[in-house]
Request: fold
Amino acid sequence: MRMWMTIPMTVVDTVFKALAQAIPERSIAGHHADLLSSHTYGVDQRTGRFFFGFVGPLGGGWGAKHNEDGANATICLNDGDTHNSPVEASEVKSPIVIEEHSLVQDSAGAGRYRGGLGIRRAVRMLTPANFTTRIERTQCAPWGLQDGKDARPNRVFVRRADGSTDGPDNGKVDVMQLAPGDTYVLESGGGGGFGTPLDRAIERVVEDIRLGYITADSAARDYGVIVDESFQLDGPATEQSRAGLRAGSV
Reply:
């Protein structure tokens, strides 16, 4: 079932990429392409009852188009029967605490139109548990089109109670033992960018910084846009930075 759901997303994504050179106005950059479905199970030591801690699929960033930014935190259309579970409902049903459910800053691919942002979900266990997940697209990052940049790929790792981290690079966990206080973290990928990042309107880059979508460092690196500590645009520095980046790309 997991593979059946993932294949349509990746195949359609690849078809759009193949057609992008011929019909860029009808194509879309790569997206996170996976539901990142993960779950924990075991016996709740507080009650002695078996639990299955499924908190729902995780949306991710959608690819940008030739005239529009990608959507943030989106679940693929072919998965209309999958929905996010409310945090409170998940915590009532299972011995877990959802510590974070947020957009992942700098996860989108830069471009004239940037991709959408992925999501980070951090789930802390209150009892020993088994953890399982089968995540795709952890190595093949969602691609950009027409000189747009790639987005971050999907990622999963475990933050142990002692501060150490653990987890596979390929996103596959058959069974991993979690102790009370351990937290598993899912980060869905962003969407690829469309078009040259240096062609993105400066005011849109500044707005992305103010919204927390991108950092000032990535704005300078990818877009050549410079802001001060108050996120106010430094016009002369931006003009100089963009000119330097354009010259370096020739």
User: Anything to note?
Assistant: Residues 2-197 form one domain.
